[in-house]
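Q: Got a minute? One more chain.
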Amino acid sequence: MASPPLLLLQNIALTLGAKPLIEDAELSVSPGERLALVGRNGSGKSTLLRIAAGEIESDKGKRFFQPDASLRYLPQEPDLSGYATTLAYAEAGLAPTDDVYKAQYLLSELGLTGEEEPSRLSGGEARRAALARVLAAEPDVLLLDEPTNHLDLPVIEWLEKHLAGLRSALVLISHDRRFLENLTRATVWLDRGRTRRLEQGFGAFETWRDEVLEQEARDLQKLDRKIVEEEHWITHGVSARRKRNMRRVGELGELRQQRRDARGVQGGVKMEAAEGKVSGKLVIEAEAIAKTYGERAIVADFSTRILRGDRLGIIGANGAGKTTLIKMLIGELEPDAGHVRLGANLEVAALDQKRMQLRPEWTLKEALTGGSGDWVELNGAKKHVIGYMKDFLFAPEQARQPVTKLSGGERGRLALARAMSMPSNLLVLDEPTNDLDLETLDILQEMLNDYPGTVIVVSHDRDFLDRTSTSVIVSEGEGQWLEYAGGYSDMVAQRGYGVLAPGVAAPGSAGSGAAGSGVAAPEPRGKTSSASALRTKNGSRKLSFKQKHALETLPKKMDENRALAARIRKELENPQLYARDPARFAKLSEALVKTEKDITRAEEEWLELEMLREEMEG
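A: Always. Here it is, folded:
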């Protein structure tokens, strides 16, 4: 027999202004349940969660919560005002029977000391303090609104593991697909004011949603056909018999009202990037670049070649130096050592993480037009700013709305709209997924995949990196950065573990385990990295199993790649190939460049390991 719900919402309705936001919503949370609450930005998800938390009352409907149960709620914008320290704020969420030391423990796990002044916290630090507050109580029901916003990957993966081990029932709102897929077992979809429930986790949601919308479209088509048939009968059938069938006339009126009441699916964002001139084949070449601030190495002896069409992801914990690395790569910051060569005809459009390019004094219209005129030029064609606003789901009346009045999601969409309107052949996007809903993320991914130029993206969204990146550059700590083919999951498969927090050693190296904000990473598997290869496990003077395995297997991999490169060169030497099949010629040329890079990387890794072995045996 199923357990009675701890939390129950029935027939919830709420109107904000003149427009109904929620019309008929249901939410049932039983002990131990793991629910994803999903819907478009502006659909009312956060409002429904606030009603569930008892923060606000609905206009209509019923809220029931078990009197002896406990509940904690994490809002999108936690308010820490009125508290002297982060520890005082976290402890204020504890009940008299809770463990008073749990708040300090969780703050430490999340990378905070507890002595921080709330007024001086960054967005990510405030989110960590708020998480410690709601998690310390270990409540029966935990309501989390965008818990991963402003968090870096080590903390996201720590949080995911921690939540998976809780007994609490969870209701999660998040734009992080991987986070939802790994944690949820049922999905509640809030769409056009009403909820639908799927008894499967978020991984099954998007296929189910598409099926629901397709069936809805078919039903509307049938309704439209029936209305046409009835209107034809009214016009011709009645006049032919000179007699009104009032029942059928009344039914036609009901059909028309039914069609008017059918709220269509909200329009989607229409993204198109303004294309600049075609860049040269080589976009960026960095050779042995380095940057140090004080005693700390941010980038040390890093080299890479970025070619036209590459989609490069940059991954690392907060503070690893991702923004510094990008600025050096695109020529905004001079390296202390080494040099960067930029390709021909380079036109850069950038989206910064804090959306600083949006001036507070601007209106929405001024942000898109540069402060003059009523038109946005996109790929040689002029488009009225109101039409361009609609493409990004802004209403015409928002044209004169100040940027400061926009929500986080609206600021994210506006910053994207502004970046996309600038002619470019190199897009640099720093945390573009912040505050975007899942449908908008889908469209952004499609746009990036269709974009003819080159893309560099910084993101903590694992699914987004997997869908958009052809390679990723990852911080290995101590200024070391390594490049891996593929997306985030490919990197983990090659490297053996994910992104570590600063101060946390790689698995298999001295001092590995949980520290700072990081969870102890899993044991490595697969390819070793050249940076971690130089460390020895627990300080012992012998190679680890992983290092020994790499020494034995790398020569075979190098031989296989050399043979592959030889086959590619032989085919490229055919003088008729380019004239007969230029696409094949281009594909082979790119494959040869990649294979040669793989050979070089493997040779360097093997040499470092061999030198390490000789040093230990010497």
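A: The first strand starts at residue 7 and ends at 16.
Q: Perfect, thanks.
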